Amino acid sequence: MKAHSLLKGLVGAAFLIGAAVSAHAADTLATVKAAGTLKVGTETAFAPFDYIDAGEHTGLNVDLFAEIGKELGVKIEWVALPWDGVFPALEAGKFDVVAGPATITKKRLERYRFTPPIAEATIAILKKAGDATISKPEDIAGKKIGVGKATAQLDQLKEFSETLPTKVDVREYPAFTESYADLAAGRIAGVANSLPNIAFVASQRKGTFEVVLPPFGKKSYFGFIGLKDADHAPLMDAIDAAMLKIKADGRMAELQKKWFGASFDTPDAVKDPAF
Amino acid sequence: MSIKLFELLLQAAIYTVTISVVSILIGFAIAVIVSAMLLSRQRLLALQARIFISFFRGVPLLVQLLLIYNLLPAIGLNVPSIVAAIIGLSLCTAAYQAENLRGGFSSVPAGLVESAEMVGMTPVQIFRRIKAPIALRLTFPALVNEAILILKASSLVSVVGVIELTRMAQDLAGSTFLPLEIFASAGLIYLVINWIVALAGGLIERSLPGVPR
């Protein structure tokens, strides 16, 4: 009897939650425009896209979203979370879009919608300056390599590791900055991250780090992430349009030059990523 | 380490202190209600209080914070990061403080209460003059202890997007590659804050009524 009424209560609660969720369904573009603010979730430990420079949130994303905000006529509000918390919070509606950026992958495309790519994301290795034991990507066999937890780089590193005679000793970090610190301290032999990221880190710390070329794995791209549902479609369409305009008039290339030292060609959309 | 970096840590420490103080105060208010429910003769009220305490004392604070931040939107309450952090810390500390208060009130000697009844004091008078001062005196050291625990536990709220002292130290260590200096400074700041709390607690405790000098 008691168990029965408890069950009834639970079912009732579930219905209430369901009703509350559907009652909240609304066109997010209209909501964002009405509030005058676009909420952007990100992790502030992914230089040069998003990072803290002496206390100031800065990077390519900050500049690019400032332009997107101008195009949409709204202000940008940033919410900084640890990377593995970003996707759950996006689904919970804590913000409208994720800056990240994230590598566009098949698995993610099934669940999320990506903006036009903002940079190439092909993976490469960062090593300590002067480390002669690593001169090509294959040399990381059997070595301790740091990589971000819940990242596409982790998947690519594991895949690459399978092709080597001895597997890589993969060390997962909550944020890439912590792996760079461990690399500088000599606790790991290298960090696997996308080329634009490690090229930036190496250029900031010339005596400390070096990039191991060439990049390995399959060619991939970075995009911003939004939800796929009908509520978010108008907002994501508007962001896509703004970004394509920013790309067409050369502002995107200018920002790439500012943050990566070079601009590069990216497709307008990635429909069928390599992995 | 530059002065600028230390200033940034201090600014983040203000966040840490504000969130902690607000949470302790809200938590105390909730704890007073919950402990009253616990001591109530109505069994349903006492049961609800027990469930509240079991949950917020039994689930790790980190999980509570993530639940509050990510699950509340499902019932239409999409609270900002700072609010989620304060709700999480307040409810968690309320559970512990309620247990402390219950312990304090049940330690009031029955003989004292009976004597008060004998001389004709009303229940309200007994509460104000006998029960409350003794219980407060008994629970005060635990309250100071709880305040220090919450100040340290506030380092967890960065998982819901609040940049407090620990998170700022991590960000700065990541961008400056000076982890030793920055974490040592952050540790020192925590130490000074908690030392002040302990010192102030000791002073207040000595001024409470019924304290042997």
From TrEMBL, chain A:
Domain of life: Bacteria
Compartment(s) of residence: Periplasm
UniProt keyword terms in alphabetical order: Plasmid, Signal
Signal peptide interval: 1-25
Keyword Signal annotated: yes
SMART domains found in the cross-reference section: PBPb, PBPe
InterPro entries: Iontro_rcpt_C, Solute-binding_3/MltF_N
Coiled-coil region list: none
Pfam families: SBP_bac_3
Ranges where the Solute-binding protein family 3/N-terminal domain occurs: 37-263
Location of the Ionotropic glutamate receptor C-terminal domain: 37-262
Keyword Protein transport recorded: no
UniProt cross-references to PANTHER family, sorted A to Z: AMINO-ACID-BINDING PROTEIN YXEM-RELATED, MEMBRANE-BOUND LYTIC MUREIN TRANSGLYCOSYLASE F
Listed name of the protein: Transporter substrate-binding domain-containing protein
Species classification: Bacteria, Pseudomonadati, Pseudomonadota, Alphaproteobacteria, Hyphomicrobiales
TrEMBL record, chain B:
Keyword terms, alphabetized: Amino-acid transport, Cell membrane, Membrane, Plasmid, Transmembrane, Transmembrane helix, Transport
Bilayer topology term: Multi-pass membrane protein
Membrane-crossing residue ranges in chain numbering: 12-39, 51-69, 75-96, 183-204
Residues annotated as domain ABC transmembrane type-1: 13-201
Subcellular location: Cell inner membrane; Cell membrane
InterPro entries reported for this sequence: AA_ABC_transptr_permease_3TM, ArtM/GltK/GlnP/TcyL/YhdX-like, MetI-like, MetI-like_sf
Gene3D superfamilies for the chain: MetI-like
Family matches, as SUPFAM superfamilies: MetI-like
Keyword Repeat: no
Family: Belongs to the binding-protein-dependent transport system permease family. HisMQ subfamily.
Name of the protein in question: Amino acid ABC transporter permease
Organism: Rhizobium indicum
